[in-house]
Amino acid sequence: MRNHKPVYIVDMSRTPFIKAEQGPGAFSASDLAVAACRPMLLRQSFLPTELGEVITGCMMPSSEEANISRVISLRIGCGKEVPAYTVQRNCASGMQALDCAMKDIQLERHDLVLAGGVDAMSRAPLLFNSGMTAWFSRFASSKNVAQKLKTLLQFRPQFLAPEIALLKGLTDHTVRMSMGQTAEEVAYRYQISREAMDAYALQSHMRAMQAQKNKSLTNIVPLINPSNGNVIAIDNGVRADSSLERLAKLKPFFDKPFGAVTAGNSSQITDGAAYMLLASEAAVKRLNLPVRAKIVDVAWVGLAPEVMGLGPAVAIQKLMQQQNCELNSIDYWEMNEAFAAQVLGCLSMLSQEGQVQAPTQNSSIPQDKLNIYGGAIALGHPVGASGVRIVMQLINALENNNAKRGVATLCIGGGQGGAMLIERVSGEIV
Questions:
Q1: What is the pLDDT along the chain (430 residues), one digit of tens a residue?
Q2: Domain spans of the chain, in order of start
Q3: How far apart are CA 151 and CA 338, in angstroms?
Q4: CA-closest candidate to residue 65, choices 22, 101, 36, 33
C-alpha cells in the first residue's frame, strides 16, 4: 500500500451546471470560476493572498483567458504574488488540477492551494478553416496593391465554412473517431443494448431530481443571469419529465444508421465551475481549519483511444493494486457519465461478465453505491470541471451516509482513465 503525506480537502464550491441552449451562455469561463471561488474564500480564516498557488483545469478558455487560472486568481483577490497555472487532460482536467495541488503540498512547496476546473462549453468558438487561414496569410503578406488584388481573386466561398472547435475537441484525430463513436465501440464490444443505455440514462435523471429535492448536494452557489436577472440555483439539465418512452424516440446521433448512442443517453454540453481548497496537515493545525476529506491516492492509465470509455475500469484496477484493496472495500463510487454505454461497459469489464442487460444488474460495483445523486447525463459535463464535481459529489455521498471511503473516476478522450481515492475525515486533526 502506498502511503503519502496527507492532503486535506477543507472546503469546496461549485456553480450550478448550466445546459447549453441556443447561442453562447451568459457567463464566461472565468466568470463561472470567480462565482464558485469567492464565497468559499470569504468563509476562510485566512486571506486569498495567503494561498500558495491557484491551479485550474480547463479545456477551452476564450482568447481573452490565456492561462485562465491566472485570470481567475487575480479576479478573486489572490494578488500579484500568488502564482497560478492551467492544466489540461481533456475530461479529467479538473482532477488533474487536484492531483497537481496534492503533489505540491506533499512536496512541501505549498500549504494551501486552490484547485479546480471550469469550462464554458457554450462559448466554444468557431474557427477559420485552413483554406481561409492560408488566404488571410497571403493577403496580409501582399506588399503592394497589385499583389493584394491578385490575392483577392483567389478567394473562394468555401473558405467561409467554419470549423466547430467543440466538435474538433471531442474527436480523437489519431483514430478519426468522435467520443460518441468510441461509446458505440464499447457498446458493440460488450453487447450493451439501447434499452440498457436508456434505462441507465433515466436512472441518472431520476437520481439527480431526487438529490435536488432532498438537497443532498451542498456548496452549490446560485448564479444571477446578467441578461435577464433570472436566478440559476440548481443544475438545469435535469429532466423531471424524462421517461423510457421519450428516450426511445431519440435517433442515434453518432452512428445514425445502426447505432444506439443518442443525445438522451449521453452527457450534455454544459457550462460550469468547481473548486476545492486543499491544505497540508500543518496548515490545518495552524489555522484550525475544518476538514471534509483527504485525498489518499490517484491512478492514471492509458488505453486504446477507440475504447477510451473503458478508462475508469482500467484506472480503478490500478488504484486498487496501488492500495492493495478490493472493490468491496469502497463505500461509494462516482464515475463520470460521459455516455451510458461507457459506464455500463466499465461495470461489465470490472465484473468480468460478457453482457449488461439493465442498470440494476449485479456487478462488482453495486448500482446502489454508484452515482447515487445522478451523473453527467443529467447534470452535464463541462469538461474542465467534471473531475472536481465528481469528487465533491462523492464527499457528499460519504457525509450523508456516514461512510468512509470512495472513489471518483473518469474516462478521458484520447484513451486514458483517472481514479482518485477519497477518505472522509470527521472531527479535528490533532
A1: 667 789 999 999 999 999 988 778 889 999 999 999 999 999 999 999 999 999 999 998 888 899 999 999 999 999 999 999 999 999 999 999 999 999 999 999 999 999 999 999 888 777 777 888 887 888 888 888 888 888 888 888 887 887 776 666 667 788 888 888 999 999 999 999 999 999 999 999 999 999 999 999 999 999 999 989 999 999 999 999 999 999 999 998 888 888 999 999 999 999 999 999 999 999 999 999 999 999 999 999 999 999 999 999 999 999 999 999 999 999 999 999 999 999 999 999 998 643 333 333 445 799 999 999 999 999 999 999 999 999 999 999 999 999 999 999 999 999 999 999 999 997 666 5
A2: 172-216+294-424
A3: 45
A4: 33
Q: Is the CB of residue 334 less than 8 Å from the CB of residue 374?
A: no
For the chain, give the number of residues.
430
Task: Give the separation between CA 101 and CA 10, rounded to whole angstroms.
Answer: 13
Q: Which 3 state secondary structure label does DSSP give 200? A: helix
Q: Please report the DSSP string for 256-312 in residue order.
A: TTT----STTBPPPEEEEEEEEEEEHHHHHHHT----EEEEEEEEEE--GGGGGGHH
Q: What is the maximum span of the chain, computed from C-alpha positions, in angstroms? A: 79
Within a 10 A sphere around the Cβ of 138, how many other Cβ atoms? 15
What's the CA gap between 322 and 147, in Å, rounded? 64
| Catalytically active residues, by annotation | 91, 381, 411
pTM tops 0.70, yes or no? yes
310 close to 185: Cβ distance less than 8 angstroms: no
Residue 99 CA to residue 113 CA, distance in Å, equals: 11
Alpha-carbon span 203 to 232, nearest angstrom: 23
φ/ψ of residue 320, rounded to 5: -65, -35
CB atoms within 10 A of CB 303: 19
Which CATH architecture group holds 172-216+294-424?
3-Layer(aba) Sandwich (3.40)
Q: CA nearest 372: which of 211, 139, 218? A: 211
Residues 263, 265, 267, CA angle at the centre, nearest 5°?
Answer: 70
Residues 6+ apart with CB under 8 A from 402: none
